[in-house]
Each structure stands twice: as C-alpha cells, then as structure tokens.
## 1
Amino acid sequence: MMTAEEYIQSLRDLRPRRVYAFGEKIEDCVSHPLIRPSINCCAMTYKLAEMPEYRELMVTSSSFTGKPVNRFCHLHQSTADLVNKVKMQRLCGSMT
C-alpha cells in the first residue's frame, strides 16, 4: 500500500499535459489551489490507513490479490463493504 506522500508523488509523476479549470490552463495540478484540497482528502485516506487506531476501517483485502489495500481504492463486494465505505468517508470528512 502507498503512503500519503507516495500517493501525491504518483500524481506528480503522471504529469498530465492538458488540464483546464474555468478556462485556465493548469500547469501543476498537484499544487493548484483549486485541486489541492481534493488531493489532500484522498491523501488523508492513506495517512489514516497507517494509523493503528484506524487501520481496521481504512484497510481491507483485495478481492483480486488478497493483499491489503486502501479501502478508498477497494471495489466493494458486500453490504459490509459499503457500510465501511460510508464510515471511512465520514471519518475522512471529519479529519479534513
């Protein structure tokens, strides 16, 4: 699983060529003040996954590989997965 810093770096490494917001070309998506709050929220899911008190909620097993994955990236397979997704979203909302 990635850390929050690795997640942000993975976005930098993508280096999208054409991104516009409200008619303005955005050169650096990761640092742009319109986009960065969303990136910070997604990064928070990785930070919480590293914290022992939130690990059980934030980390689950991939149905494809069986390896631990961030619940934010998980394809939900059951009602319990969806309930935990809502709990995860509420936690992230309160933390960001």
## 2
Amino acid sequence: MSKRILVLSTSPRIGGNSETLADVFIKGAEEAGHETKKICVYDKKIEFCKGCLGCQTTGKCILRDDAERIIAQMKAMDVLVFATPIYFYEMSGQMKTLLDRTNPLFPAEYEFRDIYLLATSADEEESSMEAAVKGLEGWISCFEKSRLAGVVRGTGADKKGAIEECGEALSAAYEMGRNV
C-alpha cells in the first residue's frame, strides 16, 4: 500500500550530510511506490513558539510564517521523516524550533503514524545521537497514535559531503525508505 511521506530536512546547510541521507531515503521510498515530499527548512522563516497555547483552542498558531504551511502538510501525511545534523549532541536548533511550533497538531486529527529520524554527526560514536533520539521520542509521546519506527545514525560525517563515505548509513537510509 502506497504511503504519503513527508521528509523534513532540518539542516541549516544546503546539501548537507543529513539532507543527503534524506535524499537516499526518498529514493528508496519512491522506488517502493510511495509518494514523497521533501521540505528543507534552511530557506524557511520559522519563529520561536510564544507559549501562549492559543492554538490549543483555535487549532491555529498566532504566528504567521512558514511553519503554518509545514504543519498543515505534516498533519495530512502517513509518515514523517526528520533529517538533522547533530550539534553538541542534540538535534539542530531548526528541528527543535519546528517541533515546538507543531503545538497546533496536539489536539488535532493527524494522519501520521510512523516517524523516522535520519541523523548525522562528526562524532564516530552512535551514542552521540541519543539526546536527539530522546528529544524526538518526547515529541512523539504527545501523539499517542504515532511511534518512532526507525533511526539511521550517520556517524563520522565531519564535513560537508563526508556522508558519501559512510556506505552503511546510506544503505540503511535507502532500505528504510524502501521498507516504510
């Protein structure tokens, strides 16, 4: 059965290592017959959540920026995929800001069930990504019908393009996309 997949590339860098993993995931998913869409946040305006919680009653954020359109697309997808570089052992600030802005989804009827994380780090240790995984799991726990379905850890990607030398991570991202 074909699924609608939204890939959110949260790197601040065009063509970075985590975006490369996202593209490989997309290739696998499309070859398996799934419908994919990729949104890169490096050129989007996404303000910080104000914490007013108005969205909990209105279903809409008071802020008018690119997050509103992204959230609407997230709501309608079967699968969400977050791609992030790891900075200081955590997800990118862009990813965290986007997650915070999804508060209007909390009381909404959302379609997504499976959520994936594609992460890259300069550090060689897979444990360098645990805080990012935990952070995403915390967000997922607010969406009872959803689950973390898989994580790809692209370690040792210390400069732009270095992920191309990480065949295991590239292969894992491709296979994950094929097997969504």
## 3
Amino acid sequence: MNIGLVLSGGGARGAAHIGVIKALEEEGIHPTHISGASAGAIVGSLYAAGVSWSEILRFFKTITIFSAYRYARNKPGFLNSVNFYDDLKAFFPEDNFDTLKKPLFVTAANIVDGTSKIFSKGELIKPIIASASFPGVFTPTEINGEYYVDGGTLNNFPVEPLKVTCDKIIGVYVNPLKEVTIKDLRHSYSIVERAYKIKVAAESMCKFPDCDMVINPKDLVKYGTFNMNNIDAIFNLGYTSTKTILAENKALFKK
C-alpha cells in the first residue's frame, strides 16, 4: 500500500511533524511518499532521506537560525538563505532527489512571476531552502535563474502530487488559525497579517477532504512561527495528537 504524507508549513511548529512521524512508526505505519511546504519540506526531506525522527528532532533543536553569519548583506531579507546550505549538505551529500529513499515533493513560490512550483527531481538542497524561506525574513533562493520563496505562500498543504500515486493520504496541518477579537487587530500590519493567515488557512483546509486522515493539533496556536524555545512541547503535541487520532482510526491502514 502506498501511503502519502503531506506536511504543511508552520515555522517552529513544524517540529510537530516529527512527533507525528514517531507516532506513525510506533503503530507500524510507514509513509512511502512525502510532500511538504516550508518547515514541512525540511522535515519531509530528512525523513525521505532515511534520517530517524530522533535525529530530525535534534537538528531542529540545535540549528541556530538567527546567527550573525547568516545575516544578509545588500539583499532583500534579514537572513541569507544560502547560508543554510551547509547545514543541509551534511544530510544530503549528493544533493539530488534521486538519492532519497522515498519520493519527495517540495513546493516553492516564484517571487517574480507569482507561480507555484513543485520540485521532485534534480538538485535537492536549494528547493528545500527556497520552500522554507519565509518572505521578508529570508532572502529569495535562486534556482536555475529563477527566484523562489516560502512554498506556503501559494501552496501550504501540497496534497496534489500524492493524489495520483497513493492509496491513502495522511495530512498534517501545523498552522492553525488563532481565534482573535477585533480588539486584537488594532494596527494596519495586524490586519494585513491576519488577512494573509486567513487566506493560507482557507486554501489549506479546503484540501483536507483529499486526505484519509488529518492531524491538526489546535493547541499549536500557543506557539509562534519563530519560537524555537518550545520545540519539545511542539513535538509532543504532534505525537499525542497522532496517537489519539490513530486510536480512533485503527482499521484505516489495514491491508
């Protein structure tokens, strides 16, 4: 049975994906095809390469995002996305999709022509970096003369490539929409941010019916996109949510 795993973006909340993988493996469920955006692309690529959940968790807990040597100079962004290349090169020495143990699909948004692209072959590391390059924080990533930013900008829940190859699809959405009141939206930037989040959430949730099971831990609203100080708590939310949902769907993955 081909089992697809789609992993959404969500910044630091992407650590919940690792907890999901641990819970799935404990129940004997091993996804065969992976699709991811942003943080989901990072976790998904490492998992597709055969890296254990514990090693992926260690990577999330030890990588330093806001280090001085990562700051961009004369580029549109605070952090230079290419400066993350060596961090990933340690896991992908051959830098090619073909070397992965599972088929992988990674989304990124072309910042110039406004199109969404799904990468699945050729060089691997730059598409992963591009997919996780949050606009305005990270510089766009150049790939074959085109410039890409965060995959979540246009496709934060890339279930599409899995629909044609998988018998069952598990969706993991780690970017829940926080409940607010009008009093929370006092500034123009908060209105713009809220509108963007509503758009991303609506576009993602309308694809949930394409999945046989969706893991969507609501308590992740407590944690911010760049809050790297609560990785263990976020990981545990992904793990416990998955265990609960699997207990309710025991027959779903029986052959």
